[in-house]
Amino acid sequence: MDASTHPARGGWNSLARNYEARIARGHALVGGKVVPADRTTALLEAVIEPGDRICIEGNNQKHADFLARALAEAAPERVHDLHVVQSNIALAPHLDIFESGIARRLDFCYAGPQGLRLAQLVAAGKVEVGAIHTYLELYGRYFTDLTPRVSLIAAEAADRDGNLYTGPNTEDTPAIVEATAFRSGVLIAQVNRIVDKVPRVDVPGDWVNYVVEAPKPHYIEPIFTRDPAAITDIQVLMAMMVIRGIYEKYGVTRLNHGIGFDTAAIELILPTYAEELGLRGKICRYMSVNPCPTLIPAIESGFIDAIHCAGSELGMERYVSERSDVFFIGRDGTMRSNRVYCQLAGHYADLFIGSTLQIDLEGNSSTATHARITGFGGAPNFGSESRGRRHGSPAWLAAGREAHRQGMPRGRKLVVQMVETFKEGLSPTFVERLDAWDLMDTFNMPLPPVMVYGDDLTHIVTEEGIANLLLCDSLAERAQAIRAVAGYTEVGRKRDRQMVEMLRARGAVVYPEDIGVDKRLASRDLLAARSIKDLVRWSDGLYAPPARFRNW
Amino acid sequence: MERLEFRFAGRPGTPVAETGEALVGVVGSGNLEVMIERVDLGGGCLAVVDTSIHGFGDTWQQVLADFVDRRGLANIRLSINDGGATPAVVVLRLDQAWAGLEEGER
């Protein structure tokens, strides 16, 4: 047989030949790498083919918003039936292309504010959902069966050779670029400015086919900024319990924090409460998390040795640049983030702590609510046991001794949910049955969308106490330990008081007084910063909060 | 607003505080005020709750019964002005008010 041809596919290099044809059409239109903004839609029509897998970059921070709009303006007769493979559905054009028939199939991770409209489009048959992924899963599939043919990406700056500088929001760019560029795909970048020389090369120019200077800088959302003014006394109480009952108990040094007010409260009492307990240098030394402004006081107090970030946060750029001992900084002086590496680091850390909307009696938790498709994002990868881990650390081994009391000794990652028993409007966090079951039926999903599975979870912290699921020997005990911290919800009120006392004696249920948490201290007075302005002060003026967070 | 009243047996026959003083523990925040007073209720306890959220009488009954039981209270009047607070806040404020009261008596 002729070694140069594959009988079934008409050659061994059909993807590359197809790529050459696309680039030839593109160059015929725009002549070179630099594309005038008003030619963008025409370029997309020239290089995208019907049925293509396409990625429009966008995640928690930056978005290729100009390219998303340009694609939405393409003629559906020319560009149609696309298969969108991207992490985040956040902007209106991401869904406009489904309404107009430009796109048909969707594999994604997270929908956030577009969750309601996405649900409506799915119901109307306009969007065929392949699957909802975690970030690492979708990136993984970029390198197996979902490699994009064309990717539309965003960067801070480009030179005329196509070298890209992403700035501190590198985020998902490396994963998208690597998969697309090395499997004969087309890369088109929108940049805020075209310059003679980029401050640093985050993506080499010979991987990039086209760059467009967008009329407006790409959209960035400050989604990790939590105003300390909104933190409640209850959150302070829960944070005190986390510090004494988990961080101090296990000696947790490597961890990932969620992004809610609950974990912000922990960060803000490190310099006060944890400091008084003599825990500086003993807990919270290495974090995988975005540069959340509420981390500033803990960093300034010398608690945190190093932080690797999935993305940046608006207003934190200068502060981060001036703290290169703590953050990962390029030779140019700005941060380099990377979602894949941050997710990886967090997966193999000692602890994940986050928040959720509902928890059932097995400890399964979900943020799914009726009528909305929100998706998973990164929490399931952070918030799961790392069964491939082999190296020991004090926290991992201590948790492992509780988890594996007989047989082969093992370690255990700590996976913690921190929730109030009731949410606003007195809707209970603890339920017998997750709404996720109904959502599965409504949207014809293969499984209920569970964020963190009960068998991955080790602790639940509420204002009432801590359930240590590692010390429960049966599902019945686990259910009682969960009821024991479920407060006055229906689930909590149905507890078996005798069994709870037995679990408490074993340490599977812990109340504040059992771990020396003095409720009288549970007040906002314990917060190292009580306002955004306090955070600016702690940062020596380096933190520049977005206008909406300034009230002075 | 809804006014709820709950009576608990407490510890019948307990005399009012030896000093005879009506001590008061008060805590307040944006969402809740709690006042605890020692009064002669023949050993019983009384709780008066002004609440803005209807239909949670059952929950209040449980929260307060637990509090009286856990602390072994007698001759105590609890006045609660609830600004739509969750049980979490109620329990925290009650515990804080009681801690303040005990400290004052020491």
- Rough outline of chain B: globular
Roughly what is the average pLDDT of chain A, rounded to an integer?
Answer: 95
Low-confidence stretches of chain A: none
Order of strands, widest sheet of chain B: 1-4-5-3-2
Whole-number tally of structural domains of chain A: 2
SSE pattern of chain B, N- to C-terminal: EEEEHEH
Number of domains of chain B: 1
Largest interface: A-B, 17 and 16 residues
Secondary structure topology:
The complex is a heterodimer of chains A (552) and B (106).
Chain A: H1 14-30, E1 34-35, H2 40-47, E2 53-56, H3 65-72, E3 82-88, H4 92-99, E4 103-110, H5 115-123, E5 128-132, H6 135-142, E6 150-158, E7 164-165, H7 173-181, E8 186-194, E9 210-213, H8 233-250, E10 254-257, H9 261-276, E11 286-288, H10 296-300, E12 306-308, H11 317-321, H12 339-347, E13 351-354, E14 358-359, E15 365-366, H13 379-382, H14 394-403, E16 414-418, H15 436-442, E17 459-461, E18 466-468, H16 475-484, H17 490-493, H18 497-506, E19 509-510, H19 532-538
Parallel strand pairs in A: 1-9, 2-3, 2-6, 3-4, 4-5, 6-8, 8-9, 10-11, 10-13, 11-12, 13-16, 16-17
Antiparallel strand pairs in A: 6-7, 14-15, 17-18, 18-19
Helix pairs in contact in A: 1-2, 2-3, 3-4, 8-9, 16-18
Chain B: E1 2-8, E2 24-29, E3 32-38, E4 45-51, H1 57-71, E5 76-82, H2 87-105
Parallel strand pairs in B: 4-5
Antiparallel strand pairs in B: 1-4, 2-3, 3-5
Helix pairs in contact in B: 1-2
